[in-house]
């Protein structure tokens, strides 16, 4: 028999060497049809009714379907938006478990379950077939030869993250072969690997590579969803980044990066999908089982609970939706050897009927999962829903983007006073936020810049955002940037302003790398990459969003500085502690000693010094026999004289860093020596007996 019942597990299309099993979850459907297409995906050649239903999974086995077959689903059921039901079998739907999604969405009104322009809006019903303009799922063979590849398994305390966009990183990089630029293959080009090694980073964190959709309003303006936070397939690598079959292309890149000792972390979007609000298109989940997949308003299920600002929110309290997220995570770890995940708008993942809960099913499922036990888990700890800002509230085992660090460091180096107490907390891993429930300093992912916001060059060159190119009249993007233009908005030839901007960038990079916690560096900041003041370049798949590498080997090149700073992190274990640092203890010892410019211990009055812009401290050795570390952060506009600390533990100090290039690196001084911290500078010294 060509068609048999098959199995309800696993979900998706599974080729076993003889044929393919198809399985799709839908609790409220009445019938499911599998649609097979020709190799170009233009013509539907056959429809097959899935013959069996087992516990809300529709399934069937076709013994003549092999890898390369394009397919989609049509799901039958009631179209009653007032009840949250939005079945429309005229719409071809993408398999949520598709491992390869071929083709791009060609926008038309046919992709909507209702008649566009109807006075009844989404309560109307559209009978047009949308298949011709829809991407198609592809049956694949998952076999792959990893050879002797080994995962780097970098300890959290030694981790240094480099956030990058697959295309943006290499699109303009001349030492990457032209055919590789903008692709997975380009990430592992020899020049890129050499660059990452020079920086000393241990992990590359990629903006979303799950298959995604370009929003219609962007396409109509000649733009695209460049960043990719518009997922439609949680198992399929985005095909636009691949020269070969996407899964193989991605796995080859992971293998090469692992060979170089570099981990791969994926930015993943399980909080919403590309289907938008009640007026959005019907592409997959909405037409398969809307009431199961999404949070709907309890009293008005026609409308969506939108905790994300993207029109909808996936309901991970539903067992099958939770299963999809967990199956997806395990797939990327087991099949693709990914080392970790950064979860976009992660507060949504922990939502239940009563709001955010650190004991939510998603967190509990991850915590007990043996496949995910050893991978890195990073939360973006907020969404826009009620009580959605949850920095410090995630469970043990998680690390979190720490925007307190970003905000404090930006404000401090922009010249704001009265921040030294806050600065001290941020430089010592933000224990006030994360020191609870057995969590460790690595819970804090420190960053000054990330993809969302100004680049480092723009942070020191623009007072205001300039997002006009996005077509939203400069209304999009954050208005709270805590930036400084140093006297001129945007580009300038004034040598004094250029010098100050470079100094501030060096200060911010130095502060980031000298802080306890896990540093995250935005790709391009090491070479002064600018987005011309655009702080929301999500739709700029062009030189605005791509990294400009012309700063290499020029005045804006801070690669050597970052390499020196990451080497310091490896050398001084107290920068990468496993335990929280303590101040002066009862026995006189300390982990951190906060000092005035006169090298006396700070008192309450010193912490509250009006308009204080100078902070210095000693970090005691984390391991006996190692050196102490003395750090000076001077954001004042004047030179501050200071005294090198004195103790039997450190009688001599060797200069390691001075961003003002006033104190030569390698020069030694006796404790008690009088030195000067030049205006707006960072200094570091190694102390020994």
What would your notes on this structure say?
By secondary structure, the chain is an alpha+beta fold. Among the domains are: 3-138, Immunoglobulin-like; 166-258, no CATH class; 582-688, Immunoglobulin-like (Sandwich). Helix content is 19%, strand content 20%. The protein contains 15 helices and 32 strands. The strands form eight sheets. Strands 13-14-17-18-21-22-23-24 form an eight-stranded parallel β-barrel.
Strand content: 15-25%
The CATH topology of the domain at 3-138 is: Immunoglobulin-like
Tell me the overall shape: elongated
- Compute the average pLDDT: 97
At CATH level 2, the architecture of the domain at 3-138 is: Sandwich
With helices defined by DSSP (H or I, 4 residues minimum), what is the helix count?
Answer: 15
Structural category: alpha+beta
Layout of SSEs?
Layout: E1 3-4, E2 12-15, E3 20-25, E4 31-37, E5 44-49, E6 52-54, E7 57-62, E8 70-76, E9 79-80, E10 85-86, E11 101-102, E12 136-138, E13 161-164, H1 166-170, H2 184-187, H3 190-199, E14 203-206, E15 210-212, H4 216-219, E16 231-237, H5 246-259, E17 263-268, H6 285-293, H7 319-334, E18 340-343, E19 351-352, E20 355-356, H8 361-368, E21 376-379, E22 399-402, H9 403-413, H10 420-427, H11 431-434, E23 444-446, H12 456-459, H13 495-514, E24 518-522, H14 559-571, E25 592-595, H15 604-607, E26 614-619, E27 628-634, E28 640-643, E29 652-658, E30 668-670, E31 674-677, E32 681-688
Parallel strand pairs: 13-14, 13-24, 14-17, 17-18, 18-21, 21-22, 22-23, 23-24
Antiparallel strand pairs: 1-7, 2-3, 3-7, 4-5, 4-8, 6-7, 8-12, 9-10, 11-12, 15-16, 19-20, 25-26, 26-27, 27-32, 28-31, 29-30, 29-32
